[in-house]
Q: What sequence folds into this?
């Protein structure tokens, strides 16, 4: 058998967890599986931050080398996608996260740690459960064009034994 892998998103003040989400769309609301056209980000503003984790379950011996990066999708003028790994959960907001731009290659990818017993475990192996949080936010500037942004693909890669 092998691992079952899904993305999970946490939202709200008291942290509501949604496992096996359909998308990581960013918008002007703090909820999972949003439809961007219904929750548009106004030019010059930020999306709500998203707190995403990867959930590993099933029959496997070891999960290691968990990496995440933006593998495709062009930016529009004045648009940036921010991401940081191993963050603690906080109520999502539209305030600037001050995170770095999301990496765009495997060589510079975010390294995700395991999260067990309420603590981040660096370079953990043989765990079943959630990774630590990845915080993401789309930021725009007043020079961003009106209308929808381009779709981006986020890749998550890991080794499984």
A:
């Amino acid at each position: 058998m092998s691992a079952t892998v899904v993305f999970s998103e946490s939202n709200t003040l008291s942290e509501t967890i949604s496992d096996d989400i359909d998308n990581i769309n960013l918008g002007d609301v703090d909820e999972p599986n949003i439809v961007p056209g219904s929750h548009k980000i106004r030019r010059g503003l930020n999306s709500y931050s998203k707190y995403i984790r990867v959930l590993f379950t099933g029959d496997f011996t070891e999960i290691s080398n968990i990496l995440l990066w933006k593998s495709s999708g062009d930016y529009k003028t004045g648009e940036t996608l921010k991401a940081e790994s191993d963050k603690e959960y906080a109520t999502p907001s539209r305030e600037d996260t001050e995170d770095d731009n999301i990496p765009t290659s495997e060589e510079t990818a975010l390294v995700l740690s395991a999260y067990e017993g309420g603590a981040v475990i660096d370079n953990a192996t043989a765990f079943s459960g959630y990774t630590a949080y990845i915080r993401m936010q789309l930021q725009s500037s007043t020079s961003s064009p009106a209308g929808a942004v381009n779709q981006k693909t986020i890749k998550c890669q890991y080794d499984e034994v």
Observations:
- Residues 22 and 33 are 6 Å apart (CA to CA).
- The chain has a mean pLDDT of 90.
- DSSP finds no helices and eleven strands in the chain.
- The two ends are 10 Å apart (CA to CA).
